[in-house]
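Notebook p. 47: complex prediction with adenosine-5'-diphosphate.
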Amino acid sequence: QITIDKIAAGEVIERPASIVKELVENAIDAGSTSVKIEIKDGGISFIRITDNGCGIPQDEVQRAFLRHSTSKIETVEDLSHIASLGFRGEALSSIAAVTRTELITKTADAELGTRYVIEGGKEVSLEDTGAPNGTTFLVHQLFYNVPARRKFLKTPMTEAGHVQDLLMHLALSHPEVAFQFLNNGQEKLRTSGNGKLKDVIYNVYGRDVAANLIEIDYEKNGIHITGFLGKPIITRGNRNFENFFVNGRYVKSAMISKSVEDAYRDFVMQHKFPFAVLHFHLSGENVDINVHPTKMELRFSRQQEVYNTVFEAVHRTLLEPEL
Ligand code: ADP
Ligand code: MG
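Predicted complex, structure tokens below:
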């Protein structure tokens, strides 16, 4: 079982950012309104994630670390619904298989919390402990027992950059959650959790960007687009300014990028890319969910229609009089 977990872990856990992604998504699933993320050495030696969510009851802690163990799938219908949202019930077992992990968790109705330690997939201890409501994960020494994978890790600075990018996207897709991110004790990102996307954009990109936004809200062909576009005076030399979310999930899509850039063509200089934070709310039949779950690249089953709708939405918004 431990070997299988180690192999399975390779699918889910590639680098510190993969661990942070799984743990923060779990924290959000648990109803947290506040999530604190701390890393050291790019997350290779130390990751701590503290949430104020529902916690895990003591008698469910061990089970949560079993492969394919999830409390989130109830029906077959659910399965197809969330098929694109990541591996189900594999994160904790995978993380525990390739790290030294410590969990402290407490539900609101329990008097005491639980401290659980698991190293390389082997349980070390399970005991009562005093703790605040919510869950804290401490993850030490990624790949300490898998040297072959450790070799593929980049420098702490690069790994920290991946974590920062990830958290930026998670913050932009969850304005209702207050995020705090510290790298080696230094605060790198902080959002208020007040639910306002514009405020998150301010926190992530700063005042110059936040002062030059155009709100977009457009619905057609079963595609609802909301969010903010940058005025044509704010551009970048690369696509890092483009943030797309489909049904709450950060995605990369060459087609959406092209469509947005084409709509900006008459307004910005060549080789300049617009700022955009666009949320796409679509019904299932528009999205091809048969893509690798950890990949952010997704395909649409009705490409041309999606392209046209996005183009029109962006183009019309840019032509609005207040510009
Ligand atoms: P999944 O998220 O797909 O269900 P995971 O392996 O990520 O699988 O987590 C296993 C289970 O552990 C979850 O279904 C949930 O019940 C519990 N869990 C994990 N993290 C948290 C958390 N931060 N707060 C509350 N429960 C959690
Ligand atoms: Mg999970």
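Notes: The two ends are 60 Å apart (CA to CA). Residues 76-86 have pLDDT under 50 and may be disordered.
Next step: compare against the earlier run before touching the bench.
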